[in-house]
Amino acid sequence: KLLAEELGRMTPDRQVLFAGVLGQRQDAAALPVLLSFAKAGDKTARVAAIKAAGEIGGAGVAPLLIGLLKDPEAAVAQAAGAGLAGLRDAEADAAIATLATSPDAKTRSLAVELLGQRRNAGSAAALIKTAADADEQVRLASLKALAGLATAADLPALLALLVQAPSPQETEAAEAAASAVCARQTGRAACAATII
After folding, report:
1. Which of 29, 16, 80, 81 is nearest to 56 (CA)?
2. What tens digit of pLDDT does each residue of 116-157 get?
3. Exposure pattern of 138-165 as b/e (b: 16+ CB <10 Å)?
């Protein structure tokens, strides 16, 4: 409570500095205050609070950041996305995977981009599903993310997406994803056998 009162009395410039220190210290006790400041106030202080909360991580951070993805302040929304991409916990993975099933195509596309940025190999199965989405931008973002995450086990699904690609851009993205998978393999003969 004392921390919240102190932070509330500071100028926005000092709030930014103080939030940065709390984030660097990984001070989990400050998390409730940072989450509160991330919701409203000066834009730069909000961005600093979001960044610090992302650095600390923990329960409650992912849902807050997801809520801020559509903030009217572009810098706040961008900071929320960067914070989500940097969180390293199962709560964040689950929250982003849920976003990928949103009825809103822009939200699904953003979720797919976040899954790709997080570089979690466990996300490949969800990305293969979103690569068959009704929205072309979601499909393209999924294929782009799969280029960095898919493994040899995902190659048959990637090849099916390649064969069924409804546009030249998607054909190119699926080819790039399959090529990236094969390039990462030590036994390229196995990739060649799967392709043939």
Report:
1. 29
2. 888 877 788 889 999 999 999 999 999 999 999 898 889 999
3. bbbbbbbbbbbbbebebbebbbebbeeb
